[in-house]
Amino acid sequence: RGWLKDLSEGLTLVGPDMNPRNLVLILLFLSQIPVPPDHEALDAVEVCAGEGNLSRGLQQCGLRTKAFDIRYSGNHNFMRTVGFMAVLAAVRNCKPGGLLFWAPPCSSWVFLSSSTHSRSWMNPGGGDRRETILANIFVLRMTYVLYYAYLRGVHFIIEQPLTSVMFQYAPLQRFLAWVKASGVSNGFLRGSYAQIHSISWYPPDDAPAQTHLVHQTAEAGLGKDT
Fold this sequence. Notes:
Shape: globular
Number of strands: 6
């Protein structure tokens, strides 16, 4: 209980980089989770999934997925320790070569709400409003999970609108630079997935955007990796 309390408190401290003590505590937690057999391991994890269309599409391609969103359960609240641990555990159960797809809330990062969060390219951390600080904490927590996914060999993709400055926020920016993350030409996706450049948001006229994204993701090699 002591180390769990330390981790919960440590994850609320926003700094320019990840705290090594938190990383040790995260690994301590994960060491207690048994490795699932291959037939039960996940191929993909989707966080902030919304309607879960991406997960359903990947399931139709024959892949095992787990979707998280606060609308599904209070235990999926990533800002609570239980939600943070649940996402970590799912990544622990994801196969190396699998996918972690994350669409974090963008309202505190986009240009349209800059008058409230005071973020800019020069100051992506924003002002001192409570909502802004909580959004920073969310992204810092996400960066810890991305770091663990990367160490496990799980690909990650982060989705943000074009005007979001989230990718410039120091902890996430440093991590993305460290892993040499790539992105699509119009900038709405960043990640470690080597074929990410082949994914485009704009679908054919007769196909929904999310369906198009699922098929491009599968065709780009996710199924082969898993």
